Amino acid sequence: MKRIITATLLMLACAAPAMAASTPKIGVVDLQRAVSECSAGIEARADLLKKTEKYNAELKALLSDFEKTKAEAEKDAAKLTADERAEREIQLQKKSRDFQNRQREAQEEIKLLEADHLKRITSRLGSIMAKVGDEGNYTAILDRSVGLFYFGKDADITAQVVQRANEEHSSNKK
Fold it and tell me: In terms of pTM, does the model score above 0.85?
């Protein structure tokens, strides 16, 4: 689908000069690079890392508690009655399920947070690309990741988009 859109844009860009008697100006952006290099992207990555470390510490404590309970159950197994061993086994299973559930929840929360950050950043970059396109009189601005086979270095406007994003980000923080 993206290739069809890209091909359509390129055909329109090529047809536009015949109609408007001007040369098309096409820009290319590496959106992934722009997201990872802009200030908002760097802050989002730091936030995700912080949250991940928090979840990892929580999961490590749960795992340690499980292993401690398991070691105690194995050590005391000979002294316990059948009912007590069964109760300990149920306790171990519960702790194991709690750990697995929390691990799954943490992964889902990190994915959602990452998706939210990415959505906000790409939305902001989209409006910046629109401004750059208008100001630079671009016929089209294409994302490099959609399968472009070649583009000249002068067509790459990623650095310009990142710079504008950083300027907007720093002015929004003030």
Answer: no
Neighbours of 7 (CB within 10 A): 11
Q: Rounded to whole angstroms, how far apart are CA atoms 105 and 99?
A: 10
Contact 26, 139 (CB under 8 A): yes
Per-residue three-class SS string for 69-101: HHHHHHHHCCCCCHHHHHHHHHHHHHHHHHHHH
19 confidence band (pLDDT: 50, 70, 90): very low
Residue 46 burial (CB count, 10 A) = 10
User: Domain extents for the chain?
Assistant: 16-173
Query: How many Å is the Cα radius of gyration of the chain?
Result: 27
Q: Is 150 exposed, middle or buried (0-12, 13-18, 19+ CB in 10 A)?
A: exposed
Rounded to whole angstroms, the Cα distance separating 83 from 86 reads 5
